[in-house]
Write a structure and sequence with these properties.
By secondary structure, the protein is α/β, with parallel strands linked by helices. The chain has one domain: 2-Layer Sandwich (Nucleotidyltransferase, domain 5). The chain is about 35% helix and about 20% strand. A 5-stranded mixed beta sheet has the order 3-2-1-4-5, sandwiched between helices. A hairpin with a 5-residue loop joins β6 and β7. It is globular, with a radius of gyration of 22 Å. The N terminus is likely disordered.
Length: about 200
């Protein structure tokens, strides 16, 4: 019996054995950390490297779960971030990586990273807080602030810091994904007028 030929003169068996192009989703990691010390305690914002890691949290888009790290887990945290196709954060380049860098010989700036704060400031010419953008875009806000987290660290309330940091990562993730889906985020002008900032935030590589 003659073999059936495909469109390009190949048998059906040959066609079936061809590799199928599978679209693989990138591993996007949303990251935030809390510190042990304030800027005042280390001699100012020029000494961010001395603030120390209290807690770091990563949400992984492929594992779809949170990963939590304390100071003793700093190296595994760096290893986790290095597996990302894209790391996303808010002030992650100027702050989070600077805090974490003393714990690693690997240059964290080599990680493929998107910093929402950098993008917002580039477009507007001034900074907006994560809380501000979350309030006006997601109708959500942070449950505490960094000063409260520092007090919790002094009191040994690590679990409270973890929950706070997880919420920050969740807000960071949801804000980014909103911007990716809708092409804008909301904010208020200095005079209090509601405005939209067009963004081109993409997880696709």
């Amino acid at each position: 019996m003659s073999e059936q030929l495909g469109l390009f003169g190949e048998t059906e068996d040959q066609e079936a054995s061809k590799p199928v192009n599978v679209v693989v989703s990138p591993r996007v990691q949303f990251f935030d950390l809390e510190t042990k010390k304030s800027a005042e305690e280390v001699g100012g914002w020029g000494n961010i490297r001395k603030m120390g890691l209290a807690v770091g949290v990563v949400w992984d888009s492929l594992d779809r779960e949170f990963f939590t790290y304390e100071e003793k887990d700093a190296r595994p945290l760096v290893d986790k971030l290095r597996t990302a196709d894209l790391a996303v954060g808010f002030n992650i380049i100027g702050f989070d990586y600077t805090v974490l860098q003393p714990y690693s010989d690997f240059d964290l700036q080599e990680i493929n990273t998107f910093d929402m704060l950098v993008d917002v400031k580039k477009q507007l010419g001034f900074r907006l807080s994560l809380n501000h953008l979350a309030q006006h875009t997601l109708n959500a806000e942070k449950s505490a602030d960094g000063l409260v987290s520092l007090q919790w660290y002094k009191e040994g309330k690590i679990n409270k810091i973890i929950q706070y940091c997880k919420q920050d990562v969740e807000i960071t993730r949801d804000l980014f994904l909103f911007g990716e889906k809708n092409g804008y985020v909301n904010y208020l002008s200095r005079s209090g007028n509601p405005l939209q900032l067009k963004v081109n935030w993409k997880t696709a590589l």
